[in-house]
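Task: sequence in, structure out. Protein: Catalase.
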Amino acid sequence: MTTNPGPPGGRPQPPPVTEAPHPGPPSGGERDAKDIALDAFRAPEPDGALTTDQGIRVDDTDNSLTVGERGPTLLEDFHLREKLTRFDHERIPERVVHARGAGAYGFFEPYESLAEFTCADFLQEAGRRTPVFVRFSTVQGPRGSADTVRDVRGFATKFYTRQGNYDLVGNNMPVFFIQDAIKFPDFVHAVKMEPHNEIPTGGTAHDTFWDFCSLQPESTHMLMWAMSDRAIPRSFRMMQGFGVHTFRLVTADGRATFVKFHWKPKLGVACQVWDEAQITAGRDPDFHRRDLWEAIEAGEFPEWELGVQLIPEKDEFSFPFDLLDPTKLVPEELVPVRPVGRMVLDRNPENFFAETEQVAFHTANVVPGIDFTNDPLLQGRNFSYLDTQLIRLGGPNFSQLPVNRPLAEVRTDQRDGYGQQVIHSGTSYAPNSVGGGCPATLGGGRLAEGVFEHYQERVDGQAIRRRSPSFADHYGQAALFWRSMAGWEQEHIIAAFSFELGKVGDQAVRHRMVANLARVDQELAVEVARRIGEPEPAPEPAPDRPTGDREAGAVGERVSPALSLENLHGHGIRTRKVAVLVAQGVDAAQVRAARTALRAEGATVETLARYGGSVAGSDGQDVEVDRALATTASVLYDAVVVPDGAEDVLVVEPDAVRFVNEALRHGKPVAALGTGTALLRAAGAREAEQLAGVALCGPDRQPGASFWEDFVHLIEQHRFPQR
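Result:
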């Protein structure tokens, strides 16, 4: 038996290369252990003669070996064959779900020790940083689909802890469509593109998805989330994350506490509106990828706070729902979220394929101090994730890929297989007494020396195929979500259901789905039915009833304010993008003032005009143009400023009128200075002074500090949906 230790010592290394040290994060900050560990696998920039994979130097890579200048190509051209073979095999199967994604490295650090609840090493000491890799993704569409489709978003975090890799594989919604993993193939087959025509890409507005959901009432709660604006986030950086399942934290002496994991973005939660998301998909299908990459490159490192809902084991049955049901959340009004640490993403990958595409997450990758529950969806995921990595990454050695390698030392008896990177010697079985012995197991003590010991839960019963009655209430929390929404959020949900069901051709599916919505809320169902041409549904029994045999007083809150986007705004406007529309004769002083005031608050300010280059201001000063209007759109910005002095040009510029019209229609903050209000009128805003989120400065005044402070406050609110 031989060891395969983790970095930095002892691991088989590639040949030494001569190159400058890796620069680390853009901020010039200290490199973490994972970044340093990857140095062993980083290839230098090509220098010197080109070679084949066997190290043979090549004299020409532009022309195949032929018989004469116009003769046939010779099969003996090994360089040609190698190039084509490598090209033909350089793609691997994309993920069945979550195929479209983006990722980044960073770190996690606790605010305090959680030793009271868990022996997980990375949670023992306040301020100790653990390297992480995070991958965000959409669920339905293939790798080539757009970022801003209506869909669930994956939020998967790999912690490279000193005890091994821990993967928190979650979503941006706290619940899921199904309760039992045996339904997962059915759900995915239904949500994916229809088999006869491979349509639609990246969307759920089709018959098979809604047929499945109309026949599977447990999906109703998740549908409410998916039809809300949560399904079209403004960016990954402004998106919550949830562990979905109930897990256990376990102490060194074997005491357990149920836990729900929450990620909360420092920038606040912000979303797009449906029309905006559709336009964005056309203007920039890589909108979310680009946003994450550019923010990190600019040193505006995204940050999330990790929170936990801690539930003593004695309270497992204290709720009007089953704690193990993945279609249910625990309202924060019943169990507050306790902030326990922060995560910062500060480094972009160097190679998308090697890192973001090959990273392998697995719900069963846990460390001592974190364990599972009997959630039937989680139990199935613990099998499925490993199984899918075997086919997608070509065999059992995917954990040896650089992005997946743990920082912890690795000693196993595992051998051979596709992609093996280590030359082993000695025996590969246990126990043995020859060949140097075998790795020692560390039993005999409660989690001695960081050993993983499964939580000792008593389990007995008959083997049956039957769902627990405590999982039977499929509408109570869907109704809670609906009641907790602001009026504009409810309107967006109605519009989403109407759009999606309006695309369904099967009348029976539409009818069943409307009937399901009536069990959530009668007014919701009636309005959706009216918009898609369905008969008004009959009233259904109120859903807010106790689950199973619980007493009527245990139902809980009728509303949960924490579910509404109204209550999840961030503070400040860092990284928000503001467009300033300019043309010949613009008030250059106002442009400079806007840039100065908004950039001081951390916003990105760009000037847009009909053409690139520059325009002459009214004071003779040139104003530099960052982008031509034809190359961009208002959906790529969070706010708009229209300075004084250029109205004669802008009001007859179709791209400028459309830009402002879309910004107004999507509820974005707009500032109009002096005669800049003429562009608002041309865009359809006849009484701009009465519109929420519009800041005006009269023609005889120059905007002072207080004007820009007020506008910053408007941008901070992100959107004015009542407009």
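The first helix runs from residue 33 to 37.
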